[in-house]
Structure formats: C-alpha cells, structure tokens
C-alpha cells in the first residue's frame, strides 16, 4: 500500500465541516443542438453536486457520424461555441473543454475516450449524457466493465431504455429538473 506523507504546521487540525469539491462531471455530446440554457443547467448541476471539474467533451465529426448516422457541423465550430459560452459564463477554473478528439482528428471509440478521461481527471467520474447516447453506450460489449468505474446522469428519462441500462439502473440517474 502506498503511503502519502504530508507535512502540516504544528497545531494543525483538519476542518471536518468543509465539504471539499471532488470528482468530475463529463458532458459527453456532439454539442450541435445544445443550447446555452442547457449548458447553464449542467454548470449549475456541477456546482450543486460539488464537482471539482466540469468537462465538456465535444465529439469529432467522424465519431458522431458512426454513432448516429447523421450530418454534423465541423468540430472547430462546435468547440468555438463552447469556448465562447465559457467566457460569457465567467469560468472560475472549474470548466474544461476537452479537445482530445479534436487533436486526434478521427473516429474515437467511446471506450478509448472514457479510458482517457479516467486517466486524466479526478475520480469519481460521472458522464452526463442524453438517453440516445446512454442507449448507444449500453449496447457496447464493454458496457458492464465501464459502468462499474463510472456513473451516468441522463439529461431526461429514456423512453426506451436498453436492457443493459435497465439492468444497471442503480448506476445512473436522471438530472433533477428545477423548471
């Protein structure tokens, strides 16, 4: 077992009342049809649940085309909109726009993306996804392996949940609607 040695000043007492922010909320989406209001709601959710980091993960065109078989705007335009929203939102350093897929410039399997996110960002990891994305994720063979390492937060209740999504109902929940 690894030991972490910390040095503290004489007389230091740990503040048990302070609730430290921890974990990462990853918004995994194309961000083609996501409005500023939806981005504001996910930022509020991250703050309400005390996440240390909100990561916006825009999918590359090739990844989106393979997952949903529909035309998609170029990556740089969607990423530019996210940067503009972050500037307007008044980022306090907790919002990150992950550009790993933009650097790769090709199809990235969801498993590879999640592996990258788990290596880079603090645990526990929560994926904020649409019901369509959750159903697509649940259809993968590796879903059972990944769902044990992270949790899902769905934007809305899925009308027709995949059987694997139903099987692991305890590992996901639906965003509370405060409307």
UniProtKB/TrEMBL annotation:
Top-rank taxon: Bacteria
Name the UniProt record assigns to this protein: Uncharacterized protein
Lineage: Bacteria, Bacillati, Bacillota, Bacilli, Bacillales
């Amino acid at each position: 077992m690894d030991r972490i040695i910390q040095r503290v000043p004489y007389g230091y007492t740990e503040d048990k009342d302070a609730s430290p922010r921890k974990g990462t909320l990853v918004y995994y989406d194309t961000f083609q049809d996501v409005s500023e209001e939806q981005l504001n709601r996910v930022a509020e959710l991250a703050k309400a649940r005390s996440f240390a980091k909100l990561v916006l993960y825009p999918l590359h065109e090739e990844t989106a085309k393979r997952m949903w078989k529909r035309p998609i705007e170029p990556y740089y335009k969607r990423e530019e909109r996210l940067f503009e929203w972050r500037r307007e939102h008044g980022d306090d350093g907790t919002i990150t726009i992950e550009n790993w897929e933009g650097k790769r410039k090709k199809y990235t399997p969801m498993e590879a993306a999640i592996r990258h996110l788990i290596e880079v960002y603090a645990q526990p990891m929560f994926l904020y996804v649409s019901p369509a994305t959750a159903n697509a994720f649940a259809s993968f063979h590796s879903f059972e392996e990944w769902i044990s390492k992270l949790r899902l937060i769905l934007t809305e209740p899925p009308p027709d949940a995949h059987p694997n999504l139903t099987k692991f109902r305890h590992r996901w929940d639906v965003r509370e609607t405060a409307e």
